Structures are given as structure tokens and as C-alpha cells.
């Protein structure tokens, strides 16, 4: 029976890097029976041992080359800066007709780093699931991570549409909504929706940390409201985010420039007592929040739907 006939999208899938995204993919693939066998590889013995202990992947291999041998789909789930070297290492043993994809948060850089190593007869379909948490590592994944979230496919020029369609079926099977986007547009959109907000959160938490020396523990004690969300975002993996800013430089600097201009305008409105400016601005931003909730991408439940600790 072929993979497609029994509900499987791929016979064998290899996950390279076994952190939050790879482990969530594994559990989501298992939940829906999307792959015959899933192999996995992580560079450290410690992560491989943890993966074996918790049953993450059907088979954990001690080398990336072993993991990708005979795979129909290989997904690179390592930090953006590591994608090129990993691809170079696995290239010689890829099966003809296989597809290589990735989940990196930046797309132009990944394409430039990975594509030169893609062998003749192997497809390359970059992707980016817009879902995550501030947690990392093999134990942080869960099957529901991608449910009702967007996953963006960024096929490179000349990609076989059948390879893209098959990857789309996998992401849809894992619960995601799928769209296709050009790499540069992706990087600009993500600079607005994810990368620059992370930088702002890192900055705000850094400022509060400086303040804490002055005000003792008040910053932590009274951080129940908005600041707590900043601290959650600022707890994200330092390696991943270092790589995001180093590889999505232009778009992030462009958005950061605009952000700084707006911040100065608000600063001026506060200094000059221009309440109308502040009110108009906040009315506009409130409408954006409503739009996000109406699109089903967040909840307006009290405290953002968090379960309250007694
Ligand atoms: P993670 O939980 O930190 O796991 C990263 C994995 O990559 C680990 O298995 C790690 O191996 C391996 N790794 C780290 N540096 C490496 C290197 N230099 N060479 C080879 N392997 C290396 O990361 P993640 O959150 O799953 O993120 C993986 C990718 O998904 C990144 O490209 C990120 O941009 C993207 N992404 C993340 C999110 C998010 O919210 N976290 C959302 C969407 C996309 P060891 O454990 O052995 O160190």
C-alpha cells in the first residue's frame, strides 16, 4: 500500500535538531498518522538520550547522515545560523526525489545558505510555522502547537509544485493553515509581527532589570499586567534569537527605524500634552487587536485565556 493510500503523507521523515519545533512536529505527525517512520538527530548526546527516553522519534540516530538516509522528507529544525553547515553535511546521502525543508524563522538567509548544497534531483521547499513558545529543547514540544496557526511555505524558483503540495498536506495534517509567500516579503512581515516585538520585549525587560536595582523587587512583585508578557517573550532561546537578528538584518532595521520614529512622535505628544494624538493612536491600535481576535488568532478571554493559579 502506498503512503498516500493509508493516510500517510510521507513514508519516512527525518528531523534534524530535536527542540521545540521538531518535537511538536513529531507528536503532531503521530497524532494524525502522517508518516510511516520518523527518524531524528540532535548534535548533543544529552538531547539524543532525552529523545530516546521520552519516545521522541521512532528512531534516534547518532549522525545526521544516518537519520536522513532513505528519508522522503528531511526537515532542518536547527537555529537559522546552523542550517547551511547541517545541509552541507547531509547533502551527499540524500535520496533522489526527496524533499528538504526547514522551519527557520528567517527565509532569505536560509535559502542562500541551504540551496547551494541541494543535490540535483532533490526538492527544496523552505517553510516557517508561525507557532512557538518561549520554551526550548526536546521535552518542550506538544502535538497541538500548530493547531489553527499559520505555516508559511516559501518555495524557491523552479520548485516542483507536487513537492510543495505534499509538504502543504503534511502541515495541514499537523493542524496548521498554510499559505505561500515570497522570501523577502516573509522576512519583512515577520520583522513587523515577531522579530521587532521580540527586540522591544528584550529591551523593556533589560530596562526594568536596571530599574530593579533602584526599586528593589517591585518590578517583579507588581509585574502582573503587561510587563509579564514581555518577560515571557524575553525568556526565549538566546541562540535562536541571536541568529534571527543577525540574518534578518535589513528588515528588522527598517521596522526598528519606523518604530523609533513613532516612539518619538508619542514622546512628543506626551511632552506637549497632545491628548488627541494619543487617543487617535490608541483607537487605531485597539482596532488591530480586535482584528486579530476576529481572525481567531488569539482570545479576548480575561488574562488572554490563561488558567488562573489558585
Ligand atoms: P530549540 O528547542 O532550541 O532546539 C534547537 C535544536 O537545534 C536542538 O536540538 C539543538 O541541538 C540543535 N542545534 C542548536 N545549535 C546547533 C548547531 N549549531 N548545529 C546543529 N544543531 C544545533 O529550537 P526550536 O525553538 O525548536 O527552533 C528550531 C528552529 O525553528 C529555529 O530555526 C527557529 O528559528 C525556528 N522556529 C522557532 C520557533 C519558536 O518559537 N521557538 C517558532 C518558529 C520557528 P542540542 O539540543 O543537541 O543542542
Automatic annotation (TrEMBL):
Ranges of residues in domain Prephenate/arogenate dehydrogenase: 11-300
Signal peptide, first to last residue: none
Membrane-traversing stretches: 9-29
Keywords, in A-Z order: Membrane, Oxidoreductase, Transmembrane, Transmembrane helix
A Pfam family it matches: PDH_C
InterPro entries assigned: 6-PGluconate_DH-like_C_sf (IPR008927), NAD(P)-bd_dom_sf (IPR036291), PDH_C (IPR046825), PDH_N (IPR046826), Preph/Arog_dehydrog (IPR050812), Prephen_DH (IPR003099)
Top-level division of the source organism's lineage: Bacteria
PANTHER family per record: PREPHENATE DEHYDROGENASE, PREPHENATE DEHYDROGENASE [NADP(+)]
UniProt name for this protein: Prephenate/arogenate dehydrogenase family protein
Biological classification of the source: Bacteria, Pseudomonadati, Pseudomonadota, Alphaproteobacteria, Rhodobacterales
